[in-house]
Amino acid sequence: FIDLSPWERVFFVARIVTSLMVVILAIVSLLSNIINDRFNQYTLTLAHVDVSAGLFTTLRSNIASSSSSYNPSNLNGVGFTASEIYVLSNYVATQVEGSPQFVASGLWSWCIGNYTVTYRTSGSAGDWVIDAGTTTFACDTAHANYVFDYRDMLSANGLDVILAYAYNGDDRDAEYLLFLAAMHRTKRVYVAGYVCVGVFQILILVATFVSYTRTKHRLLDESHFSLTPSSTVGSPRVRSPTKPRKRTSDSLLHHGIAVLSLATVLASCVASAVTTADAFTLQNRIADELKSFGIMLVMGRRWFACIWIGFGAAAANAALWGGPLWCANPT
């Protein structure tokens, strides 16, 4: 594209780069943990120390409440002997012993993970510091109807005792099933939105190269006339009209690309917004239900950064196309 002016080259490169960014980020966000099992949408923390402490506290409170209800003279709870605490601690440790330490979820499947940490002493005071750590993953098969069913994940990974105490044995109530159905709908909106984003931007990429070729690399010049040299040496240059049919078809192509780029921004914004809102709802729900058991949901920062950077790139691409066409001074 040697015929481009410096500003035209800047616009051309910026348009191509932003389109490529949107396509790549859309693919990465859609495939996420299929590409990399550590690139996840959510992580459910199940650290054995936290879960054991939370379960122990809950069981102790339940036992104390139950005993108080049958013994009115002891309204402040029941004191525990050392042997009773030992038995309760062993029971709690047994319940969480075989469970994973976290569950990572993407759009299509989930993975369980465990980590081991070794320590060493440091300095004359003998302080303990982390020496090394390893993390192991085991992932479920990806499938289209997958949704982040955190209660089912707890049951599948040996934590039925938490479900029993957190939900009184009714962890598949009608309200929760409606919540899962809403998550299914949100997922369909996101997938459809970002499939459209990827397809639209691929079309824009193709149309960009076609457009620059058809207009002889003069997209930024929206004038209806072009300069042609005079046949007489020394005579001033004069303007001659560009062919109307070619000018009209080029203008339609440019406006079509700009409209398509706006559609990309809209699809990306809707998909990213509903998914992020759904994630905050899920995070708050799990905190309300399971925080006392040491379980929390952590949103995948890289995944959510990916979708919002993709939205930003789509918005930049729309500005690069729509700005010169619709906002520039036509004279």
From TrEMBL:
InterPro entries per the UniProt record, alphabetical: SUR7/Rim9-like_fungi, SUR7_domain
Superkingdom of the source species: Eukaryota
Region Disordered: start-end pairs: 227-249
Residue ranges crossing the lipid bilayer per the database entry: 12-31, 189-212, 257-282, 303-322
GO cellular component, one term: cell cortex of cell tip
Residues annotated as signal peptide: none
Entry annotated with the keyword rRNA-binding: no
Keyword set, alphabetical order: Membrane, Transmembrane, Transmembrane helix
GO terms classed as biological process: fungal-type cell wall organization
Protein name: Uncharacterized protein
Source organism (scientific name): Babjeviella inositovora NRRL Y-12698
